[in-house]
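Record GTPase HflX, 438 aa.
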Amino acid sequence: MFQKVFEGLVRMQKLPGYEKVLLVSLQLPHEDEREVEESLEELARLADTAGARVVGRVVQRARRPDPATFLGRGKVRDEIAPACRELGVELVICDHELSPAQVRNLEEELGVRVIDRTQLILDIFARRARTREGKLQVELAQLEYLYPRLAGKGIELSRLGGGIGTRGPGETKLETDRRRIKRRITELRRELDEVRRHRTLLRTRRQDVPVTLVSLVGYTNAGKSTLLNALTGAGVPAEDKLFATLDPTTRRLVLPNNEVVLLTDTVGFIRRLPHHLVAAFRATLEEVTEADLLLHVVDVSNPDYPDQVKAVEDVLASLGAGEKPTILVFNKVDRLTAEEPWLVPPGRPAVAVSALTGRGLDELRRLIMDVLKDQRVRREFLVPYQRGDVLNLLYEKGEVLSREYTPEGVRLEVELGAVWASRAAARLGKDNPGRISG
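=>
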């Protein structure tokens, strides 16, 4: 009966320590089959990262989600429920976000726990957060996801229903839980504001020291941590798992011209990244928005990499970093055969590397150096006489085109790298940001 529905059913259903899960999804009219399958495959990898064992998958074609059960009631009753019993399924994961009512109804129909893609990602983040900041961010995201769903939790929480004989202490407990969660959310936001202020202070200090900031961005499991290790010897953990890195790591990178830049590894992105996570991790993601250059790491061995590139660029745009100077780093070329083509977008700086074998890393270092060198601007600064540090920076890093002595200080027209122009402007303050020359 289940041969058609559950293609690729794994044979190892009794492995100890693994929760057996069933993946379900809906194919809407505007989605093609390949898109749905790729998303389900990614969901399977997320489940594996969380320590689950996928024993089956169900996809239903429908014009719209069922408001009560998401999937059609007949599908749930006649196919999914019997399959859960026959396969010993302990958890059903939906590839879309579910409403509290849909979770409750599905759990009652199926007799097993039901979660959605967002909850799965939050669970992975909770397992992998190591620093205090990461743990705070994950807890905030989880509570903001849970708060509107508290009254609709299904069989995983005991609850009293509505109607005669069910009112009383249960409702008081629910309101108490809500108040506690709301209070904890406020506390977490306050603590993360302190983290953000601390990060802002660190970035201000970094701007006082003229060092270029480079951030690694990319889809989860693209190889960012492996690349950071290969370039800097950072020694950070690098696993073949989704979201192996949550906490940013910064290391020094020396370029071929002996210039030193700071290279930061950041959390990976994913399609339909839950907005709770984007909001909670904003303090961490500010490392991306403050960077002078982005290295967009792409797993070119993944046949879905063009869509992954777009997903990352969409998140960068939502963070206000879509226009930042970017180098496309096509990683994992060691996994390609000679016959497998891959496309480099015309007019964009790009390089092919293997962080694992070291192929192309020298070319990447040279490209970083060249891109930073090419970002030259012409600026005019009024430097007070007592700010010899800024004068030294402008003369050392730029070409002085004109100089005029005024009562307030030295007026300089300088052509220099955009990074150093911003550093000089930061030192001089908001009243003297470095005016663009004609």
